[in-house]
Amino acid sequence: MRLKVKITGSKVHEVGYRVYLLRKALELGMERFNAYNTKENGMQVLNAFLEGNKDQITVFQEFANENKPEDAEVSDRVFEDYEGYVIGIADYMHLIQVEQLSKGIPAILSIDRKQDKMLEKQDKMLEKQDKMLEKQDLHIKITKTGFADVKEEIHKGFGEVKEEIHMLRDDFKELFMHEVSELRSEIVEIKATLARMQAAG
User: Fold this and answer.
1) How much is the pLDDT for 126?
2) Under a CB-based contact definition with an 8 Å cutoff, are residues 49 and 33 in contact?
3) Among candidates 24, 19, 12, 38, which has minimal Cα distance to 96?
4) Under DSSP, is residue 84 helix (H, G, I), strand (E, B) or coil?
5) How many CB atoms sit inside 10 A of residue 44's CB?
6) Cα(7)–Cα(162) distance, rounded to whole angstroms?
7) What is the pLDDT of residues 55-114, one digit of tens each?
């Protein structure tokens, strides 16, 4: 005896529904089982096919009509006799395994690509860390061993500035004395001119 089960709903794919029905078929000792997902009118559809004796079919139909995976959302179930070929349940289990592998391989490759990107980022971070450590080492070296040299340079710089200030002061002093001397000469001439004007007046 063969049975076709058509389960329709907004969420009957990717919820483990086929394995859920397969497990029940195995529990009942059925030797033939097949199931696949499809879509009709925008709705998700699961078609299952099984072969067994009358009791097995009856129990399976009652189970499928009253139960579903936890995350499944079912709107309709249709049961009808089936005349076509149903593969062996062991062969179907192999198909499920191959299907899971085919889904897993892209996921593994994706993880591998992400891991490569993460390693590249990690290498860049390590390069930056190395540069930071180099700068830190240089800073420590300057602090420990180069401070005397830095201090000497600072003192040398101060000495040069001080010398330039003295030179400016000397130049300014000389210029100031020259200006004072000229002013004195002009004052003497002004006094002489005034004296002459008074004598003439």
Assistant:
1) 72
2) yes
3) 19
4) coil
5) 22
6) 98
7) 999 999 999 999 999 999 999 999 999 999 999 999 999 888 887 777 766 666 677 677
- Chain length of the chain: 201
Distance CA 35, CA 128 (A): 55
Q: For residue 54, give both structure tokens.
A: 């009358």
SS3 of 75, please?
coil
DSSP structure class, residue 41: T
Identity of residue 133: L
Whole-number pLDDT of residue 161? 53
Q: Distance of CA 120 to CAs 11, 123, 134, 179, Å?
A: 40, 5, 21, 76
Classified as helix, coil or strand, 49 is strand
Statement: residue 133 has pLDDT above 90? no
Residue that the structure tokens 């996921």 belong to: 107
Q: How far apart are CA 190 and CA 196, in angstroms?
A: 10
The three-class DSSP label of residue 193 is: helix
Residues sharing a CB contact under 8 Å with residue 17, sequence separation 6 or more, in sequence order: 7, 35, 46, 68, 69, 72
Least confident stretch, 25-34, 63-72, 94-103, 162-171: 162-171
SS3 state of residue 198: helix
Instruction: Give the residues across from 76 on adjacent strands.
Output: 8
Residue type present at position 36: Y
Tokens of 42: 């925008």
